[in-house]
Write a structure and sequence with these properties.
Layout: E1 48-57, E2 60-69, E3 75-81, H1 89-100, E4 104-108, H2 123-129, H3 136-152, E5 155-165, H4 167-176, E6 186-192, H5 208-211, E7 219-226, H6 232-244, E8 249-258, H7 271-287
Length: 291
């Protein structure tokens, strides 16, 4: 299991006085993932301020990782919504890549209430013990808190974007339909694959497909043609519902790509599709004033 290496430009903020820390960032990969070292992208922190922080939310503190340019600002904020495996090296690297592009990237640990996540050995275990027990309302609140924290530390809450991967792609749709607190202006969203439909429960009452017609900002979807978690008919239905409601949405499907094609640490990584999607993502953010 890979350990996270300390990087230059690390900045640590003091903990808030109220609340109790119940969890932290994942130090390495969960036992449910396989790392392919030869293809892992490792973005340095030169020219950045980056590190771990605690974000106050509802009397507790949400662990998060952020990266931003080391001078200038305020910077447009991009929330990075993790996969199911925690805010490990890959998600942190996404924040640093965004920082290099001039953004304030911040990734809250949405599953901080489950400190044993890193010890879980299968995706099935993670879904049953963590994902299914995490209320969507809590995810939205944690994302809001991270955006507000960024706005107090060099970010511009009037230029807010959100991007998410895997399960995070599903959460992007929900956040795009979410009524954010006053002062946060979500301008663009990018969903990298992830489920569009699925079971509904009292704590997860809606799917991405359910809220497609309610999104409040332009949304770009980057999907994989060989991904069983998002069937072609579900992708088409989400796009159709959004457009029927007069929303701005664009869906790109990479026909030969599997689920997780952007995750460079996994066997599913497809370099050409990942790089194309990244450029499309940056262009989408800039097009809608997150830049």
């Amino acid at each position: 299991m890979a350990d996270f290496r300390e990087i230059a430009g690390l900045e640590r903020f003091p903990l808030a006085r109220r609340g109790v820390v119940q969890g932290g960032l994942v130090a390495g990969l969960t036992m449910a993932t396989t790392r392919v070292e030869a293809q892992v992208i490792d973005t340095d922190a030169k020219g950045l301020v980056a590190g771990e922080v605690r974000v106050s939310q509802g009397g507790a503190e949400v662990p998060a990782y952020y990266a931003k340019p080391d001078h200038g600002g305020p910077f447009p904020i991009v929330l990075v919504v993790e996969e199911i495996f925690g805010v490990h090296h890959y998600i942190r690297d996404i924040c640093r890549r965004l920082g290099k592009a001039g953004y304030f990237g911040i990734a809250p640990e949405l599953y901080w209430r489950f400190p044993d996540l890193a010890k879980m050995t299968s995706a099935g275990e993670i879904f049953s013990r963590v994902i299914a027990k995490t209320p969507d309302a809590s995810v939205m609140e944690d994302l809001d808190a991270a955006a507000q924290w960024a706005g107090r530390h060099g970010g511009d809450p009037g230029r807010l974007g959100v991007v998410g991967f895997c399960r995070g792609g599903r959460d992007v749709w929900l956040y795009a339909a979410h009524d954010a607190p006053s002062g946060l202006h979500l301008r663009a969203a990018v969903a990298w694959y992830g489920p569009l439909d699925g079971p509904r429960t009292p704590i997860q009452p809606e799917t991405a497909l359910d809220v497609a017609g309610d999104i409040r900002c332009p949304l770009l979807g980057l999907y994989a043609g060989k991904d069983p978690s998002s069937a072609p008919e579900e992708i088409q239905a989400a796009e159709a519902r959004a457009k029927a409601a007069g929303k701005t949405v664009r869906i790109i499907v990479y026909p030969d790509a599997p689920h997780g094609f952007h995750a460079d640490y996994r066997p599913s990584y497809r370099k050409a599709d990942a790089e194309d999607g990244w450029e499309r993502m940056l262009a989408w953010l800039q097009r809608f004033d997150v830049g």
